[in-house]
Amino acid sequence: MTSSVICSVTICFFMLLLCPSQLRAQPGTTPNIKHIVVGRCYNYITLVNPSFRCDCEKIWSHFEEAVSRQSSCNVTLKDYHHMFHAMPESWPCDKFLFWSKTRTLMHNYAAVLRQFWTLEDTLVGYMFNDLIWCGQEDDSGFDFHSCPAWSACNNHPVYSLWRKASQNFAEMACGNITVLLNGSIENAFNRKSMFGSVELDSLNPQMVDYVNIKVVTNLEGPFIESCNQGSIVDLIQILRSRGFRWTCTDNDQTLMILQCVQNPELSYCQTHTHRKSPTSS
Questions:
Q1: How far apart are CA 33 and CA 157, in angstroms?
Q2: Model confidence at 281, in pLDDT bands (50, 70, 90)?
Q3: Which of 174, 227, 248, 269 is catalytic?
Q4: Backbone conformation region of residue 44, classed left if phi is above 0, alpha if psi is from -120 to 50, else beta
Q5: How confident is the model at residue 128 (pLDDT cuts 50, 70, 90)?
């Protein structure tokens, strides 16, 4: 009897080691998602962008229709068509800010300069930022118990919405746009990222005057990529081939100062200030 119990425990232990992703449940739809989404919508059109007009309840209805009657891996970009049609937006030129692997610094940069718009500043970005959702095929409603990871399927409901939102945002971009990339990681420009796989291909060289790339590294390293090294070079080649004009700056002074504001104890912040001149086409 004892040996049998030991054997069973051993088998279970190895199953946990070998198959953790299958046994570990993913978070389900964000609780109270309707109240959050509709509330954010009203907050946006009342306080954030009062000049914008839309029907928040109608947007929610289209969103719910797109998601709640579908299986978790069967929500396409087309399913969100009516929702996006109910919230058309346009933004002034020279204010578009794109980013990859620099989220916290990007938001700080936009907040300080107050001259940029990011995807999260649009209505759809504001409404759905940091939320999780998925439906369930056998029951017309949201699944609040478990949702698949983004990597589990191509037509993930969250991924499809952000892909469509990113595409629309890039298609609107005009004038001088800014791209903020992380030079402290390999593949700062990644063709599989949302910027590399969706937004870059959706930019129109007839509408965009300059693509201003800013490569920022952690102040104390590692210093892996720059305008002249690594995947940033690949990005510049793509821009050239598509007829974009561009500039590229390593360690923009404002971005460096922002890092020092966040971490004033860093030795770099106490002993160094320097600025590199941009490289341009």
A1: 14
A2: low
A3: 174
A4: alpha
A5: very high
Q: Which one from 54, 73, 93, 260 is the annotated catalytic residue?
A: 93
Note the residue count of the chain: 281
Can you give the pLDDT at residue 205?
97
93: annotated active-site residue = yes
Q: Is 102 exposed, middle or buried (0-12, 13-18, 19+ CB in 10 A)?
A: buried
73 is catalytic: no
Maximum CA extent, the chain: 77
